[in-house]
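Components:
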Amino acid sequence: MATASAEIKVTPEIAAEHGLSASEYARVQQILGRDPNITELGIFSVMWSEHCSYKSSKVHLKRLPVHGKLVVQGPGENAGVVDIGDGLVAAFKIESHNHPSFVEPFQGATTGVGGILRDIFTMGARPIAVLDSLRFGPITADHSAPDVSAETIAKNRRILDGVIRGIANYGNSFGVPTIGGEVCFEPCYSQNPLVNALALGIAKKEDLFFAKARGTGNPVIYAGAKTGRDGIHGASLLASAEFTEESQQKRPNVQIGDPFVEKLLLEACLEAMATGAVVAIQDMGAAGLTCSTTEMASRGGTGIEIDLARVPQREMGMTPYEIMLSESQERMLLVAERGREGEVLEVFKKWGLDAVVVGEVTEGGLLRVKDHGQVVAEIPAHPLAEEGPVYQRPMARRARKKESAADYFDFAAENKNLTENFKRLLASPAISSKRWITEQYDTMVRTNTLAVPGAGDAAVVRIKGTKRALALATDGNGRWCQLNPRLGAMHAVAEAARNVACSGARPIAATNCLNFGSPEKPEAMWQFSEVIDGVAAACNELETPITGGNVSFYNETLGASIYPTPVIGILGVIDDATNVLKSGFRNAGDIILLLDGLSSSANSTAATASAHAADLACEFSSSEYSKTTAGIVAGQPPAIDLAAEKRLQQYLLALASSRSIQSAHDLSDGGLAVTLAECCFANAKSGAWMTLAHNPPAESILFGERGARAVISISPSELAGLLHLAREHGVAATEIGHVTGDGIFSIQYNGSVIIEESVAALRDIWEHSLERALKQ
Amino acid sequence: MKFGVVVFPGSNCDHDAFYALSFVLGQPVEFIWHQSENLANCDAVILPGGFAHGDYLRTGAIARFSPAMKSVEKFAKSGGLVLGICNGFQILLEAGLLPGAVMRNVGLRYICRHVHIRVENTDTPFTQAAKPGQILKIPIAHNDGNYTCDPQTLADLQKHRQIVFRYTNAEGVDDAAGNPNGSMNNIAGICNRERNVAGLMPHPERAVEAALDSEDGLVVFRSMVEAFVTSAKANV
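Structure:
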């Protein structure tokens, strides 16, 4: 299939090899009124691939909330755009590059970052931050993953190393700070890691650009890197079928990234846009020249005609099929105002980049591709882009074995040493500091980073020339979504928003990357549908509309699917950048408060206590602690109360803007104990003394992961005022201890010490475990 | 005092240097395009950080042939102040304006974090506003910062007090843990014998405001301004 020439006669068999079903092929014939030639077949096959057409997800994506008063551009463009005040807009989007990153981790990750950066500056926005949400198979042998072989662990480490180096290589050279995201580990990602990259950019509202071709006769300009044979069917085909044992042979399908050329392309594009001579612009990502020409014409209601002979080429003898389907990186397609193309070409020349007029905008809505003047493809652009197949795939709820108390975490088991268990939790790759990874990223370039990774719950970048800052966080717990996709998805939104609020920012919009197994399996489609409903419910309640994102299906190898893993990115605004909150305790003597949006939870009556205990075990069995210390993954994610989440977030915002608190950190993986420890790690001399009193088992208080909660520290003089404000917001604020200067981390439970250790010892475990594990 | 910041293709800390000098320090600044031999009457030239020409071949190896570098060399030979930061330091080494070379970091990984450096000599135009032995908290961000040179060059550097900054731990003590990249003699920055050209791997322009977690980098730029004012007065 790779070497196709114009002489090949297209048959239904060749169409099937291109991934087109019989009915899809019939539709191609119907749109054209004839049989396609091989180049046209190639064009249809990539445009109608799952990756480019969203044919399985479209019917469900419609249920996501996409409107809001700050939304300038929702899904459908290169990136979502929201109004952030001061005449500025933020463009942001998250996208997956999972399949290429498994086949070739370094290049897969670099091109993932490169692709999302282009999506941002294509809109006229300068990228100011990148976050990466990563999922790998286990990198350590422990009893939370007893079946994972040493060989698999070694392979997972190589994948992690390649992905981290790839992300670092691209972002560092390009000059955008890589400032956050998450890294999680589960056995299901061994054969299918997830690499989701999010980029954020800003622009003046009036300087936004869109990918709509306009103006008959306007020249179409190709700019950037030359076209080669790399990446033919890269994103479009690699990401549209599941992996088999032969997938490693697809390595030549992975694109190669060049961050230096991308940096030049960024500067040249922004400078070209500033000339006023650019009418429309779109980057060449998945399906390269095919997708950019088709979508620009379709969106603009025009046609486009290009001649491939004029396309700058890296190799000799490329066929029209190869040129149209190449996914060579760092390329852009622009439409310029007729007569002013010289100004645009001049800018690219200044930056040492190829830029040539390859065609023009036409009337009649046809995508016409010529080669040395001879027509090699002629397809109506709108049907190609918008009238592809749409499927309502069958769905079936996942069958789960009925669980009993024996499957759940046993609070009553004897001989537990909670301090030792706590240390194991801090040492686990999921909980331990990711410093070893984030130090390989340039987190500070552009001197806007107010919260480096680990300093706060969200990444925070200021906007020079204004008082404002933007906060961003990503979240997505695949294990919870496996246990309950709808509930897990709601948690992903709630936690990302909570993180943003804990940094002092008001959450305003969301982007999502939906990673799933094969849509041809009813169970995966059911998970997908449930997740959409969960995301929709949470985004509605928290008023964070979805402005864009991407769907990644076929995340399976040899029939084994990943956990359904929606990754949600939430953007927030801080009106006064000096109000940014960080998570570390600051002053000895400060009071530690536990905030809980679910203010009535403490008042459970004795009558419901036994039912409550059963629920507790079920819920606790999905926690990181249960997985790490007992090897149990079962039950359900914690129940969620979105109204409580919202109350908590609004209270945090009120606290941030009144500048009355010293620190804020949400409760998530590892629960209260991990949150408190992390609050101590920021400051060399910090200690903390806490006392907790409750009926439920100590472990559920210390390590339970129910949401809508955060820990803050305050000066004692602020206590009365804050408690009053908490009552007004309907949030329970409980004094649980105080910050000390003795460097001891101590938790009492119902009057006796249950965890006590020096902060230095805990910090050493937390900060170095990942590095030590990888160097084993 | 007018600063010029040279922009090579792939420079990415050019805007940061510009911002620090103009918005934080209030000095006039101009960008100088690498294809231009006109230094726009600047009183000092900054070679910024980044990945000039992608750092392909070798860091700074291509950038040193830029037309702008011809002028920078002349400017330096005539006594003009030139500061190379990170990639700019690497370019100065390649251009032969400073002695020695940098290799890949020990550990072969890119490192971005705050480090501590000690001001070893205050009799340079880049450190004259600092206290002798002052410890500065300034970030590094590089792949290749492992400074090396032959024993004779090192002896010369020491003899002529050209080692301007050394990595230390947070308390200002020399130790291996304070050296992030394996650099010989814990060297973080050096100057030429005439003391008008200096280069360092850490990024002072990233440590110019409390909001960025450190203002310690300001002393480098303040020193340059002070030195310029002093010499301008002397010339009156």
